[in-house]
Design brief:
The protein is mainly alpha-helical. Helix content is 64%, strand content 0%. The chain has helices at 11-22, 34-58, 67-84, 93-128. The model has no long low-confidence stretch (mean pLDDT 88).
Length: 142
């Protein structure tokens, strides 16, 4: 029987793989095999989905028209597009490796956006001690 909850890739392992994948030289003849790259793409896709879900939830506490909210919505839209794109068939080694690198950069962007939203939340909380700040659905994805 299959597990009812999806397996979430380990953050430490994923971040190590992000750095490894971004170090791949796609112009060299030693590009990883398509099978190896697809395994990384699957791991990065699962982790990106988790990050995007967390970011959407965090965005509920910031202003929709704030600079941070606009940037977060942008990365969430990019995430939706990249994660929904199917891999072509036949799949070349170079294309699969390029896809893995693109998802590695996407993960970096999601982590950066999450950190920025958390900073905005902290600023809002500190302002609440002196002012009343309206909240909005700051990052609902398109």
């Amino acid at each position: 029987m299959a597990a009812l909850t999806p397996t979430v890739p380990d953050k430490v392992e994923v971040l190590a793989n992000v750095n490894t994948v971004l170090d791949w030289d796609l112009s060299s003849p030693d590009v990883p095999s398509a099978a190896d790259s697809v395994a990384v793409v699957e791991q990065f896709t699962a982790y990106s989905q988790v990050l995007a879900k967390d970011l959407r939830t965090l965005c509920l506490s910031i202003l929709a028209d704030s600079e941070v909210g606009v940037r977060a919505r942008s990365i969430l839209g990019e995430t939706s597009g990249r994660l929904s794109a199917p891999l072509p068939s036949p799949l070349t080694d170079r294309y699969a490796a390029r896809r893995a690198q693109n998802l590695a950069r996407l993960i970096q962007g999601l982590l950066r956006a999450t950190a920025q939203v958390r900073e905005a939340q902290e600023r809002a909380v500190s302002q609440l001690t002196t002012h009343s700040t309206p909240k909005g659905n700051g990052c609902s994805s398109p």
